[in-house]
Amino acid sequence: MERVERIIEFEIARINSHLPRARKSLKDLLNMEEPMITLRDGSVHYFKRQELELLASLLDEEEIAMLRLPMVLEISTVERDKIIIRGKVEAKVIRKILGFEEAIIEEPILKLPRYYLPKIRRILPTTTVHAFIVEW
């Protein structure tokens, strides 16, 4: 069984090769002439400036410095019908983008039905990325 688990983990790592090696703050990306990051597979991912500016318009200065991009939308093997967004600022942005009311308490984890994934990706195609998470 251990061999099968290693194979599955290898395949998940392969399908997640589009994830960033490191994320950058919205503030740093806004200050770059060509906002970009390097992905795990060595390729470069470019951010659309108008998308970065949209995100900045939703946040205050402190939050702009805190928001790390791209935001990771997790797809879990356990909660297959949900996507998970981690981070207080990230969750706030997604709630605003989807038109949800302000939360009374800002939670650091936001779980949404998976059918929101295409809508989020359509609105924020370069500042979000989905990741497949294996949980046993």
Average pLDDT number? 90
Unreliable spans: none
Radius of gyration: 16 Å
Q: What is the string of SSEs from the N terminus onward? A: HEHEEHHEEEHEHE
Biggest sheet strand order reads 7-6-5-8
% residues in beta strands: 15-25%
Q: Describe the biggest sheet?
A: 4 strands, mixed
Description:
- The protein is α+β, with helices and mostly antiparallel strands.
- It has one domain.
- It is built from six helices and eight strands, in the order H-E-H-E-E-H-H-E-E-E-H-E-H-E.
- It has a four-stranded mixed sheet. Strands 1-4 form a two-stranded antiparallel ribbon.
- A hairpin with a 5-residue loop joins strand 5 and strand 6.
- The longest helix has 14 residues.
- The two termini are 13 Å apart.
- The model has no long low-confidence stretch (mean pLDDT 90).
- It holds the Pfam family DUF61.
- This is UPF0216 protein PYRAB16100.
- InterPro entries: UPF0216.
- Belongs to the UPF0216 family.
- It comes from Pyrococcus abyssi (strain GE5 / Orsay).
Key attributes of the depicted protein:
single chain; 136 residues; alpha+beta; four-stranded mixed beta sheet; two-stranded antiparallel ribbon; 6 helices; 24% strand; globular; UPF0216
Question: How are the SSEs ordered, and which strands pair?
Answer:
Elements: H1 2-15, E1 24-25, H2 26-31, E2 36-38, E3 44-46, H3 49-57, H4 61-66, E4 68-69, E5 71-76, E6 82-86, H5 88-98, E7 109-113, H6 117-123, E8 128-133
Parallel strand pairs: 5-8
Antiparallel strand pairs: 1-4, 2-3, 5-6, 6-7
